[in-house]
Amino acid sequence: MAEIEGGGGGKKKGGKPHGKKLSTRVDFTPMVDLGFLLITFFMLTTSLNKPKTMELNMPVKEKPDDITAVKVSQTVTVLLTGNNQVMYYFSDPVTLDPMTPQITDFSAGGIRPMLLRENKKRVPNIDSIQVYKDLYKVSRMTEIDMKANIARLKADVEGLIVIIKADENAKFSNIVDILDEMLICNIGRYAIVDISDPEIELIKSSAASLKTAGTVNN
Amino acid sequence: MAKVKVPRKSTSVDMTAMTDVAFLLLTFFMLATQFKPDEPVQVITPASVAEIPLPDVDVMLITISNDNKVFFDLQGEHYKKTLLERMGVKYSIVFTEDEKTKFSQMSSFGLPIAQLKQYINLSPDKRGSFPSAGIPCDSLQNELGDWVWQSRLTNNSFRVAIKGDRDVSYPTIKQVINTLQDKDVNRFNFITSMESAQ
Fold it and tell me: How many domains does chain A have?
């Protein structure tokens, strides 16, 4: 195909009548065809990018004496309530009663600004994590140093503690989303905890109040 | 005006260089490829910004489909054989050597152990149409816990990866996590896909 031989060998007039000189050139086109066919096949079957994972550590079960006491003022409770909604509330430091819950979602403008703000309030130098990462990028800091520094900042005793509770309408993607926010907001201390009855009531009542508010608006 | 004579050029192209490139790429893809294991269910993993890659070896994979069924898989044919043997002893089901070999070559399965023998003896292309009930993991009958525990007895360096569909409901996830915690697995990974640029 790609080779159109302009007349074979053995055409020199007056030369010795030696046998026809065969061209040593081989047409590679079918071989290329085959090569690309196989490439296509392997490209389609291959899974080059390894699946990414997110690590989760759960506490060891059934050790009530291991429970760490934390300050109520440090914690925020996040309730995952299905419909990709998320509700969070702080607790009153004195009476321990939950304060009015806020309803938001997982978008960048949802729960993230609150988490960032609250964490920064408690750990003012949390932003240096980005500085460490930048330093590592321009190779002015070793990876070990960077990780140690970040781990130190994340484990700050004063840092925000997020208590994640999901009700039965929550989906797996909601769990991953909220864990993602922990990663983005550099929150080192969080736990997934079973939801309690008062909180289920709280979700119900605020869903109801939302509904009535909706009808009023209409 | 005289006709301009365009010299006829040969249409022949040297294909050698192209062959070289093609085969170089081919070699690369052949070496880099890992055949996608055929999965009994299609699972759409949730997106996240997490960047920890899944380890290549010693992974215990728990798949949860969007209809809340649980599937189990273990890496390493050798380990799977031992695992089936141990499970057989525990549930007093005798598996033949042939069945163990077939089991070790299988991908994820989601069946109560009572149906497993029947499933193993199906030809691979018929397994897809076999109705998968999911591995029971409720408090009444927790076979998943046994699978996890026996796998850990086989090789203790297994990492547990949970691959859940984004629509799996939370109670199912909680059940699986509780099962894992009961078996002293307190560190595990959620498999996620890369988040698209925000």
Answer: 2
Q: DSSP letters of chain A?
A: -----SS-S---TTS--PPPPPP-----HHHHHHHHHHHHHHHHH---SPPEEEEEE-PPSS-GGGPPP--GGGEEEEEE-STTEEEEEEB-TTT--B---EEEESSTTTTHHHHHHHHHHHSGGGGHHHHHHHHHHTTSS-HHHHHHHHHHHHT-TTS-EEEEEE-TT-BHHHHHHHHHHHHHTT--EEEEE---HHHHHHHHHHHHHHHHHHHHH-
Alpha carbon of B59: minimum distance to chain A alpha carbons (Å)? 12
- Contact check, Cβ <8 Å, B22/A35: yes
The reply to whether A183 touches chain B by the CB within 8 Å rule is: yes
CA distance B19 to chain A (A): 5
Per-residue pLDDT of B162-176, as tens digits, reads 988 988 888 888 889
| pLDDT tens-digit series, residues B89-125 | 888 888 888 888 888 888 888 888 888 888 888 887 7
Q: Tell me whether residue B17 is in a domain.
A: no
**Does a structural domain hold residue B110?**
yes
Whether the pLDDT of residue A133 is over 70: the answer is: yes
Specify if B186 maps to a domain: yes
Give the CATH number for residue A111.
3.30.420
Range of the domain at A133: 124-157
- Summarize pLDDT for B173-197 with one digit per residue, the tens: 888 988 888 888 888 889 888 765 4
Domain shared by A132 and A208, yes or no? no
Is B19 part of the contact surface with chain A (CB cutoff 8 Å)? yes
**Above 70 in pLDDT, residue A210?**
no
Has residue A99 been placed in a domain? Answer: yes
Q: Does residue A132 sit in the same domain as residue A152? A: yes
**Residue B44 with chain A: CB contacts under 8 Å:** none
| ipTM computed for the complex | 0.75
In a domain, B22, yes or no: no
Q: Per-residue pLDDT tens for A29-59?
A: 888 888 889 888 888 877 666 678 888 888 7
